[in-house]
Every structure is written in C-alpha cells, then in structure tokens.
Model the fold of this input.
Amino acid sequence: MRYRVPSKAPRLCRRSAAGRVCLLSALFMLLIAGCGTTAVEVTGGDFPTPIVPSMPLALGVHYSEEFRSYRLEESVPQRGDWSIDIGSAQVNMLQTVLPAMFDRVVEVDSLQPETLPQGLNAILVPAVQEMQFAIPFQTRSNFFEVWIRYEMSLIDPRGEVIARWPVTAYGKTRSLMLESAEAAIRDASINALRDAGAFLAIGFSNQQELKPWLERELTAPEPAP
Amino acid sequence: MDMIKTMLFALSSSLLLAGCVNSTVEEVRSGATGMRSTDQVVVLGRRHNNGYETEPDFVSCVGNHLGSGRDSITVLPERQFVDTLFPFFEPRTAPLEIRDLPDLMANAMVGEQLQQQGVRYLVWLDGSTSTNDKSGSMTCAVSPTGGGCFGFVTWDRESTYEASIWDLESMTNVGKISTDASGTSYMPAVILPLPFIARVQASACGGMATQLKAFLQAKG
Done:
C-alpha cells in the first residue's frame, strides 16, 4: 500500500509548473538583488611585522573617528552602488607596522598638549585624503584595483606641525571565476594597505620633510620619562 | 574486471575531453648550480606590472612540482617567505634586477632572515596566461518544462612565462628558463555543453618545473 505524504512546502512551490515558476521568480529576485549596494567590509587583514630597525623614539598616534570608520561610497554606472569600509583594517595595519618602527608607540585620544602622555617625541596623525577603486567592468582588464592616498601629519607635543607628507598605496587582485566581487575588492584593499605599510616602514626615515626633525631627535638626549 | 573497464573508460573520457596543447621550454645557463641538503628554494611571482601579474596559482603549481616526486627540492611557500621578509618583497619594493640584490643583502635584518631560512635560490616567475581569439556562440534557455544549450564555442589560450634564477650565495643570475604553451579549447553543446579544455597553464607549469628541477640540481 502506498501513502502520499502531504508536502509541508507552500502550495505554490510544490513540484508542478507553478512550482517551477516560483523557482524562476526566486532566481530572478536574486539576480536583481545584485543591482543594489555591494557592501565590502575589510576587517582584520593579517599584516606581517616589518623587519626594519626600531628608532629610539616614543611616538604617539592619533586615529581620528573619521579615520577609524573610513568608508568609500561610490556608484558605478550599470554596476550599482558600492560601499567599501577600510577603517578597522587600516588601524590594524598601523598597529602592526608602527611598533616595529619605534621603540615606544602610544595611542592618544586627543591632540590637546595637556592630555598627552609625558615623554613623547611626536604624534603621528594619519588621514585618508582620497580612495578610488576600479572593477573589471570599468577597466576591461582582469583586475580589481584599489588606490589610497594618505596624508601623514607629524605634530610635536606642543601641537605644532613638524611635517606633512603623502603616502600612496595601490593594490590589485585578479578576477577569479568563483570569487565574488566583494571578496576580490577586499583582497585588493588588503594589498593596498600592505603596500602603504611597506612604503611607510621603508620610506619614513628617508622622507625629506622628516629629515631635519629625525636628525634633531636622534641626536638629542632622551626626554625625561 | 568491471573495475578495469571503468578505469579504462574514465581514462579514455579524460583524454577525449582534453584539448591539444603545444609547448616549448628553453634554457639559458650563465652560472653553475647545485643543491646541498640544507638549501631551500623560493619561487616568487612578479606582480609589479600594470597590465598583468604572474598568477599565484601558477607560482604555487611550479613550487609544488619542485617539491614533489623524485629528486624533490625543499621549497618555501611564497606567502610565508614574503611575510617573513616584509616589506622587502612587496610588488613595489622587491628587487627587480640582480644588481639590486647586494644592497638588499647588505641590510643585516634581511641577510639574517635569509640565512635563518636557508634560502639559496630565488626563482622569479614573470608572465601570464591569456585567452585570445574567442569565436562561435552558444545559447542557453530555461523554461518551466526544462532547459538546454545549443551552439559551438572555441577559444585559444596562450601561456608565456620566464623564470630568472638568482643564486643568493654568489649574488648572480645563474640562468633563465622560458616556457610557451598554447592550445585551443572547444565546447559544442546540444542540450548539454561538452567542454574539451586545453590545459595550457598546467602544461606550461609542468614543463617549467621539470626543467627548473634539472637546472637547479645539475652541477656545472
């Protein structure tokens, strides 16, 4: 004897012509969902510690709220809106790179001279000046690309600007058949942040704007703790 | 007996489904090589060019071939090497010419890391695989009663790679190996598409790795 077990699925989606229509509609909905906002959150990023000699200096770092939560929002014609959040990843990159470059690194919440810890040689304030990205649809290439231009400001503990200099970064990643655009942009952003870290670690002591200050600080007696 | 028949069928099917590939490998030697049991090799991809980059899967394919089979060589994974020597082997900072190497090795921290890891040879792979000359067309349709594809598509793929082998002991470029591979893939479809794929990159990888293994282990 054969029993027919009643389906628990909604009546429209049962195995029938109507069911197939239901499936096709669901597929269509998924397709048009791709025309909305593509949100990419670049979190973590396993950045390596640079092998550079540590400078005998105490550096304060001030990450502004804007820097910590930096997000690029842009619309690409025929490819919808994009939102790329690199805030936490770029803080993570600097938290890995800077302690290898200086003997002491302290994060400071404010730039007010009276609130700063004693003994700092200077305070670094990173800021994103511009960020751009490109997808294969725009460039007719196989690559997702990300460009970031930072402006680094070095401020002395009295609040006077010692130097400002640009750090440019570029990262790309190949478009793969089974990889989503979100994952590709995330990888390209991490490559760009790695590039910024490499440029900062190698270029800091050679930066023309910083040379007079570095010569002064590295030859001066250590500040009182 | 059934097992053998199944295996023969699978083998003939895979041969049938693979397109043909033409490949050539050339070698230019400019210095002596040889591997001690403690020597390690790193295979790195060039990624500084604007229009292309050496594919990470090609780099790992060559590394895996070198590190397996008879006379295998100890190969350090690319990522591990680049991370350990950060920031000196990033796309923008890596030495491009052999004449850049002495300056890099003069950096005590870099020299110490390379010595610690026992790296003797750096193999730089430069090149890429591209798809050219796509032709034909295929139409696929899905309806409530079923679906299928109809048509014929063909495309050519070409791989061109060059390996430069740097000896970190003598700080010289001891040779170059280049490989070119090309092949045509087909995909006819009558209801179901049936791909006949020419494994161009895999062929270039195999040719390059076999030649590299012999090159590094040869004396003289």
User: Anything to note?
Assistant: Chain A touches chain B through 23 residues (CB under 8 Å). The beta strands of chain A are 37-41, 55-61, 71-76, 80-85, 102-107, 122-134, 143-155, 161-174. The longest strand of chain A covers residues 161-174. Residues 181-203 of chain A form the longest helix (23 residues).
